[in-house]
Amino acid sequence: MTTGSSTSPHSVRVLRLDHWHPHRVAEAEPDPRYDWIFNAAAYGVDPSQIDADAAHVANAELPLAFVDLARRSGARALVHVGSCFEYAELAERRPLRESDSLETVKTYAASKAAGSRAVVEAARESDVNAVVARLFGVYGAGERPWRLLPSLHGSLVRGQSVALSEGSQVRDYLYIEDAVAGLAALAAVISDGVQSAGVVNLCSGLEVTVRRFAETVADALGASRGLLQFGAIPMRPREIAYLVGDVDRLNSLTSWRPAYTLERGIAMAAAELSAKIGNAG
Fold first, then answer.
1. Which residue, among 203, 210, 214, has the nearest Cα to 244 in the 3D structure?
2. Cβ proximity of 168 and 210 under 8 Å
């Protein structure tokens, strides 16, 4: 859980909790002073996190504690980080809109969707300036090892082949620096008088296949695309074929646009990952 504090954009306070429970937020901050608050906590992103009750507490109940924290601190903006996986899969291939149906079955997605709805409703009732930013396809050097980018990098820099699915899945990728800038842009917008912006997709709106993403990583590393063994493994069960966000609402609220192309973002992330390996050696 991360919260931004003070009038300086460079002054940030991180609220660390020993347990993801709403009560811990109030206990950790008895006399809070914040301008902007960002809640990026989530349970279920890590494949080992499969407890449904824990997911509900962290993803659906904990966000309400941040609404209350924003109310008590007089924060000018609360940004709750949502997920593109909150949406139910569409029967047609088109960008997802904020008004589309939400997932109700999958534990992580359904609990995140419940949390987003709760934040919007509670913020409205509490007169808190809030926005739910549903992120799509964020990537960067800080990802966990099992994620696509670090797993590709770890093999390709050693000249090892990588077993992949056919790579036809279409995604909406966003470099981490763009994601951070977008979250700040949304916070600034609601600070300027939009009492509650509701839900906004934070994404590029561009279609990119997993195959193209993997090939771009190989190119950035100077590795042979032949090391990418597309079709060597089957698609995961219930794999979503198309996951791209509609950016109309985002573009109407803010002038923010992604600054990094896919090629530039991957090159930056790959270089940082390579530097980490070099430093560790």
1. 203
2. yes
**Maximum Cα–Cα distance across the chain:** 58
pLDDT digits (tens, 9 = 90+) for 48-77: 999 999 999 999 999 999 999 999 989 999
The CATH number of whichever domain residue 180 belongs to comes to 3.40.50.720
Could you give the number of structural domains in the chain?
1
pTM over 0.85: yes
Q: Which domain holds residue 121?
A: 2-136+175-204+246-259
pLDDT in tens, 83-111: 999 999 999 999 999 999 999 999 999 99
CA distances for 223 relative to 88, 146, 227, 264, 278, angstroms: 37, 20, 8, 16, 18
